Amino acid sequence: MADLTRAHVEAAYEALLTGDKQKILEYWHEDLRFEMPGNHQFAGWFNGLDDYLEKMAKLNEACGGRFTATTLSILVNPDDGLSVDITRLDGYRADAPEDATSPYERLQIENIHVLRWENGRIVEGRSALFADGGTLANMWWSPMNSRGERTEL
Fold this sequence. Notes:
Blueprint: H1 6-18, H2 21-24, E1 28-36, E2 44-47, H3 49-63, E3 67-77, E4 82-92, E5 106-118, E6 121-129, H4 133-141
Parallel strand pairs: 1-6
Antiparallel strand pairs: 1-2, 3-4, 4-5, 5-6
């Protein structure tokens, strides 16, 4: 895939952030498969773009819009149709105070995405977390807060 460049990968993520399905479909295949790591309600394989977009909407809802993803590096292998990006995520639960440090209220992790591309679009993705990111993500997505009280996500 000769047109697989860092700029193309960045454009795919920018399209995803627009929420405009037609724009997203320029870079993300409707039959997308995407695997999320962890042992929580959003771990495992998402089958189809709509399934994946529902998960992304739930993430935005759980954060109340307070979520940032900073790309640290993007590597591309056009010959094999693969890209790898390393990202730092920082998000708060919607009801968490700005100074929250508990992993039940603030998610601070680094992850890697391995994306497989065909004809300019992502057909499969896998996410993996560095260090203790799996545990931290499980705590953040759990139905508890830092006081041990059950919450809604």
